[in-house]
Amino acid sequence: MLKSSGMFHFKLLELESELLAKELAGQEAVLTADCEDLLQFVEAKIGVKLADSIFKNWHGWLTYRRQKNALVIARGRSFIETGIFPRHRAGLDIASGLDTITEYQRGFDLTPPQELNHLLINFRLLDPPHILVWYGENIAPYQLYFEADAVYENEQLLKEALTQGCIWILTKPKEMTLSEFLKKNQV
To answer: Which of 49, 58, 65, 121 would be a feasible disulfide site paired with 78, CB 3.0-4.6 Å?
Structure first.
């Protein structure tokens, strides 16, 4: 009985996290200068944005903005754009990656595909605002695993949290959950 009660509570927490992530991603909030600086800091650290020109056979991490207040970090790879002067562009590492490039260039709001684990960064409107980092996997609810004041002084903490999230995506240890992994690595 206790085990099922704990599982029920865990599922409710997951649902609450997913609803909060969706609500925060849908806000049309005006970001403070520190919020925008933190997003630009992450984009600069990753270095490649969705639809950037890139070299042939590139594989790595890329970022893209969702609306104005959210940033997605996901695995990407190069796709060749056909035409008179073919070139390679960074797309999401999925079969339809070239389509994601085209949609993004047209200004569509891209929802991260279910088959691609990713990190979502957005903000909670408090005083001061908080920066949130979520882990997204398949159709499971988003898991919040990092929250801090959205001030530039917290860039190192944010960098460490993103590093751990990317390591999780690459290694996905089957013997532990994300929260156990983060506790072990002290995020």
So the answer is: 58
Decide if 6 is inside a domain. no
- Predicted confidence at residue 18, as pLDDT, reads 64
Question: Which residue range forms the structural domain that includes residue 145?
Answer: 28-184
22 occurs within a structural domain: no
Look at residue 40 and give its three-state secondary structure: helix
At 31, phi and psi to the nearest 5?
Answer: -80, 145
Helix boundaries (H) for 32-112: 33-46, 97-105
- Contact at 8 Å (CB) between 121 and 39? yes
pTM, rounded to two decimals: 0.80
The neighbour count for residue 1, using CB atoms within 10 Å, is 5
pLDDT digits (tens, 9 = 90+) for 104-114: 999 998 988 88
Considering the domain boundaries, does residue 62 fall inside one? yes
Q: How many domains are contained in the chain? A: 1
Q: What are phi and psi of 33, to 5 degrees?
A: -60, -40
CB atoms within 10 A of CB 34: 18
